[in-house]
């Protein structure tokens, strides 16, 4: 996710997304004063951007598409949990590629 200098490391493989989602949840659960709402929101936005790119990249590969759709579903559930019991309007205002992945999965 973020390297030591604070630069975002783009996620590309399924394992990176799988591990990255766990790291994202851990980040949002952090009570450290160095982990601000801005850092949390940035990590969420970057994760969603990378996931959307991966979903688009693998749209024609059914097996990989299913894997990334599962990550998108987990991310959407995480965002729902954040929005339900949180004062974090930044999450509700962010773009929602996970939601679009959810909608396309229903189709």
Task: List strands and helices in order, with pairings.
Elements: H1 14-29, H2 37-57, H3 62-84, H4 89-93, H5 97-106
Helix pairs in contact: 1-2, 1-3, 2-3, 3-5
Describe the protein's architecture and organization.
The protein has 107 residues and is mostly helical. Helices cover 70% and strands 0% of the residues. It is built from five helices and no strands. α1 packs antiparallel against α2 and α2 runs antiparallel to α3. The longest helix is centred in the C-terminal third of the chain and has 23 residues. The C terminus is likely disordered.
Secondary-structure-based class equals: mainly alpha
The major beta sheet can be summarized as:
none
Q: Uncertain segments of ≥5 residues (pLDDT<50)? A: 89-107
In DSSP terms (H or I, runs of 4 or more residues), the helix count works out at 5
Q: Calculate the mean pLDDT score and round it.
A: 81
Strand content: under 5%
Number of strands: 0
Computed over alpha carbons, the radius of gyration is 14 Å
Quaternary status: single chain
Shape: globular
């Amino acid at each position: 996710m973020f390297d030591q200098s604070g630069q975002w490391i783009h996620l590309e493989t399924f394992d990176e997304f799988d591990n990255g989602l766990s790291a994202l949840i851990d980040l949002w659960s952090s009570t450290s004063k160095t982990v601000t709402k801005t850092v949390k929101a940035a990590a969420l936005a970057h994760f969603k951007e990378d996931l959307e790119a991966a979903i688009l990249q693998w749209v024609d590969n059914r097996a990989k598409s299913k894997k990334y759709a599962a990550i998108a579903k987990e991310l959407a559930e995480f965002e729902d949990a954040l929005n339900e019991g949180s004062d974090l309007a930044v999450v509700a205002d962010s773009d929602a590629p996970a939601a679009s992945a959810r909608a396309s999965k229903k189709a």
